[in-house]
Write a structure and sequence with these properties.
The structure holds two protein chains of two kinds. By secondary structure, chain A is mainly α. Chain A contains 13 helices and two strands, in the order αββαααααααααααα. In chain A, about 35% of the residues are buried. In chain B, the strands form four sheets. In chain B, strands 2-1-3-11-6 form a five-stranded mixed beta sheet. Chain B has a three-stranded antiparallel beta sheet with strand order 8-7-9. A two-stranded antiparallel sheet of chain B has the order 4-5. Chain B is globular, with a radius of gyration of 22 Å. In chain B, α1 links the parallel β1 and β2. The chains are: A mainly alpha, B alpha/beta. Chains A and B meet through α12 of A and α3, α4 and α14 of B.
Chain lengths: ~300, ~450
């Protein structure tokens, strides 16, 4: 029996309505409200608000800190992508193609940071980098390299680089599993055939594995960029609070500072809009750069 | 020099000798009509009384006692407590939705009296405060050590806790090493130089995560010492030209010299105030400029042979008086309080000699009430007795008062510039320029 068109349409609407409603409440409403707040001068602590139009955006353009803050975010995006992908791909290949007996154990160990709360990770690494009691300086001094020891999180030249380490450490596990799953989908006959043709491990990796898992690699890179721009500031808030003197300030942590420390909630909402624009642009650029699949070449 | 036993007999705490310049507004008696802006609320009160208060370095033992005593004295009142270390963030939505608690203690992170005044969230107490009489008939305002904060001559809060910043040291370690306690800038710098040489440590601990501790603990007394309350308040308000005052540049240059001499702990920038204080307790540093919460906050970690000593930050020239800039923690009635009468009655109840003595005993700090004889109380910590005695000595110490605290929208960028100065990343001129720019932006944003 052919379903009437109206009935089919009703069915589709009812099926998608809960998801659309959830999306509207959790994504669209906060987005529109946030953009609305950016048009007001508001402390964020009272019901008193004053409409000021685009003044917050003009202030954003004039703020000398904004270019540096965007630069810090971009630095972390690049370092995270390179660091996480190198480690995740290496571990994934090792766990799937090196036939290690302890592979299940290593899977748990590498994934463990993923289940730790960001605050816990931040506090842990504060102690790792501690100038006097920390593991890094302790190892350097034990190895006779005490001259290299420094207050890592208190040195403007090294603070952001130091934060990149736990950011990468915490992210490797998830993407390693993602790539393990992708590699596991490659038919073993392809690798065996290439081996028979005389291909070494490197050739197998670049000519077979990478092209076949390229969609997952591309998605992982885009996802790393998005999560970096939206979430890396949590570690900054815990470890350095954006200091010393804004050396580790990110867009997210600057938003938090303006909203909750300096009582400029409207301006913070404008920074939120900036984050949305920067994140969208970054994702678009990445997808453009990675649109060709090596498998097609 | 402040020692454990240097308690002045009959000092009666900080009574009388303290140069308590009152900032009383020109209010001639007020009307006792019990309306929300006036009235002494000396009579019985009833109903629910909601109180929002911070639990931090001073703990909550004193609060629990006064709540219980107030309810006993006013059986018709039920106190609803909202206390904690993050209570101001937790209660934020109540203030945004215009449903605030009746009373709020303004201390700790996440709250700003200046912002609350700007947002019209606090009840104007200008008329009420002068009418409040204590049980002995004296006016409450006359018994304040530090006057109430004012905003264009209006009062919106009652100064509850008399907090001071001081420069702390381990008296027993100093005695053991033969180090003299400094009395002025020259002797302080000589002391730091000697300590660096003999102990091989950076003499001064401070926090880079909360640079306002150094700002208020070292620079405020320095600014007030040369320019009095006028310069200090101009800097706090970000007045045009204040931060480019030559005196500010001179003080910043002194700090710059400290950095060059290696007096500041090189790892300070990543430390919170408790981490800096912990390093101080471990003798990694000899001095830490911080608030009077130090002994109570760190009590679980104080070594057995450690003896707290504290002096006003000695930025004064030889022969000149040390300057102290008190920083009061306040308590205020919400503009939209449901039970303002009970709120005012509670304030009057706790501002007494009895609860001032209890505060010293239970929290290790000072309530903003004159006339407490710490000298005769064995429960008051020795460092507090000594500090009290020194603060009472008008020959050695002068007090200068802030009209109100610096707004975070100015203190944050100034604090960032200060971190750069203390790191050696910028010089005095750079610090002054950055602070001046921050002040200009702050004025434009108000």
């Amino acid at each position: 029996m052919v379903e009437p068109k109206g009935q089919r349409r009703l069915f589709l609407i009812l099926s998608t309505a809960p998801a659309v409603l959830l999306f509207a409440v959790t994504v669209v409403f906060p987005l529109v409200t946030g953009l609305g707040y950016s048009l007001f001068k508001w402390s964020g602590t009272s019901g008193k608000r004053r409409f000021i139009g685009l003044d917050n955006y003009l202030q954003l353009i004039r703020d000398p800190l904004v270019p540096a803050v965007i630069g810090h975010d971009m630095f972390l995006v690049v370092v995270k992508i390179v660091g996480i992908m190198l480690c995740a791909v290496f571990f994934a290949v090792a766990l799937t193609q090196f036939k290690l007996k302890e592979a299940p154990f290593y899977r748990v160990v590498f994934f463990f940071p993923q289940v730790m709360a960001a605050v816990t990770i931040g506090v842990l690494w504060i102690f790792v980098f501690n100038n006097d009691l920390g593991l890094v300086n302790g190892l350097l001094r034990a190895a006779g390299l005490g001259s290299l020891a420094r207050p890592w999180l208190g040195d403007p030249a090294w603070a952001l680089v130091s934060i990149a380490v736990p950011v990468i450490w915490a992210g490797v596990g998830f993407f390693m599993l993602m790539i393990v799953s992708a590699i596991s989908g490659i038919s073993s006959s392809l690798l065996e055939a290439s081996q028979l043709d005389g291909a070494g491990r490197w050739r197998q990796f670049w000519s077979i594995t990478v092209p076949l898992i390229w969609p997952q690699l591309r998605d992982a890179i885009v996802y790393i960029a998005i999560t970096s721009l939206n979430g890396a500031f949590i570690l900054v808030m815990v470890m350095t609070n954006g200091g010393p003197d804004n050396a580790t300030q990110l867009m997210g942590s600057y938003l938090m500072e303006q909203a909750f420390t300096r009582y400029n909630f409207g301006y913070a909402a404008a920074i939120g809009a900036l984050i949305m624009v920067v994140a969208s642009t970054t994702v678009l650029v990445l997808r453009l750069l990675m649109r060709r699949n090596p498998l097609e070449d | 020099m402040v020692t454990r036993r240097s308690v002045l007999a009959g000092a009666a705490g900080v009574a009388g000798a303290v140069a308590g310049t009152s900032l009383l507004t020109a209010c001639s008696g007020g009307n006792d009509n019990g309306s929300s802006g006036g009235g002494d609320t000396g009579g019985p009160v009833s109903g629910e009384l909601e109180i929002q208060y911070f639990i931090g370095g001073y703990g909550d033992a004193w609060w629990n006692q006064v709540f219980a005593d107030f309810e006993t004295a006013n059986p018709e009142v039920k106190i609803v407590k909202h206390g904690g270390s993050t209570i101001h963030q937790e209660m934020k939505s109540r203030w945004i939705s215009n449903d605030p608690p009746d009373l709020v203690e303004i201390e700790g992170a996440g709250i700003s009296e200046s912002q609350m005044v700007a947002d019209g969230q606090l009840l104007d107490l200008t008329e009420w405060l002068p009418t409040v009489k204590l049980d002995d008939g004296s006016a409450l305002q006359d018994r304040f050590i530090a006057p109430a904060n004012t905003y264009e001559n209006a009062v919106y809060s009652v100064p509850l806790i008399y907090d001071n910043r001081g420069t702390w040291f381990d008296q027993s370690w100093f005695t053991q090493q033969g180090w003299d306690v400094p009395t002025d800038l020259d002797s302080w710098q000589s002391s730091m130089s000697r300590i660096k040489q003999e102990a091989g440590i950076a003499p001064m601990a401070t926090t880079g995560v909360y640079p306002t501790v150094f700002l208020t603990g070292v620079l405020y007394p320095a600014f007030a010492g040369v320019g009095g309350a006028q310069l200090l308040n101009a800097l706090i308000d970000g007045d045009e030209g204040a931060w480019t005052d030559p005196a500010v540049h001179e003080i910043a240059t002194t700090v710059q010299e400290w950095v060059k001499a290696g007096f500041i702990d090189p790892g300070f920038a990543s430390l919170t105030h408790t981490q800096a204080q912990m390093n101080f307790l471990r003798h990694q540093n000899a001095y830490v400029p911080t608030g009077f919460w130090l002994p109570n906050e760190m009590k679980a970690d104080v070594p057995a042979d450690f003896e707290f000593g504290v002096i006003p930050t000695p930025f004064n020239e030889p022969g000149a008086k040390m300057t102290v800039v008190p920083e009061v923690k306040t308590i205020a009635v919400a503009e939209k309080a449901k039970n303002p009468d009970a709120a005012k009655a509670f304030i009057k109840f706790i501002m007494s000699e009895k609860y001032a003595a209890d505060f010293a005993r239970l929290s290790g700090g000072m309530l903003n009430i004159k006339g407490i004889d710490f000298a005769t109380s064995k429960d008051v910590p020795a460092y507090l007795q000594s500090a009290n005695a020194l603060l009472s000595d008008a020959e050695k110490v002068q007090l200068e008062y802030m009209a109100h605290p610096m707004h975070a929208d100015l203190s944050t960028p100034v604090g960032n510039a200060l971190v750069s100065l203390l790191l050696g990343s910028t010089d005095a001129a750079g610090f002054v320029e950055a602070a001046d720019k921050a002040a200009a932006a702050y004025r434009a944003n108000r």
